[in-house]
Write a sequence for this structure.
């Protein structure tokens, strides 16, 4: 479990096409396809013991073990104790890794690493209301 400074998820879209049914004068939009996954980018501070991103990148790069993973990305509430929403990313594989950020040595910036991975499917896992709001039924 690692906290991230920022997270970028793809926009999921639905492709539609206008068709005319029979001799009806009006056009109707029907769904033709949809995007269910895409590229997700995670950024967090470079930590001495946090090597998960680099190890996953090396697994995919060298073809060792099983580099495809399922991930749960948790949005937490302001107190950071309770989850507000959970995104499920299925069959993910890393596509880009940046081990440190570009910055000036004379500035007081924190170095961040970035990992971009492709996932086949992104879904939202609904949370029970009682877990989100204590005392609710």
């Amino acid at each position: 479990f690692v906290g991230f400074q920022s997270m970028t998820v793809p926009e999921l879209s639905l492709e539609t096409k206008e068709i005319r049914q029979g001799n009806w004068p009006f056009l109707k939009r029907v769904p033709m396809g949809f995007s269910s996954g895409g590229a997700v980018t995670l950024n967090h501070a470079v930590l001495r013991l946090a090597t998960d991103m680099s190890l996953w990148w090396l697994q995919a790069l060298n073809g060792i073990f099983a580099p495809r993973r399922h991930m749960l990305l948790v949005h937490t509430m302001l107190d950071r104790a309770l989850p507000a929403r959970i995104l499920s990313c299925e069959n993910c594989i890393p596509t880009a890794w940046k081990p440190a950020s570009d910055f000036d040595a004379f500035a007081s910036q924190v170095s961040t690493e970035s990992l971009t991975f492709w996932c086949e499917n992104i879904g939202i896992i609904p949370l029970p209301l009682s877990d989100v709001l204590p005392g609710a039924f």
In short: The CA atoms of residues 128 and 137 lie 9 Å apart.
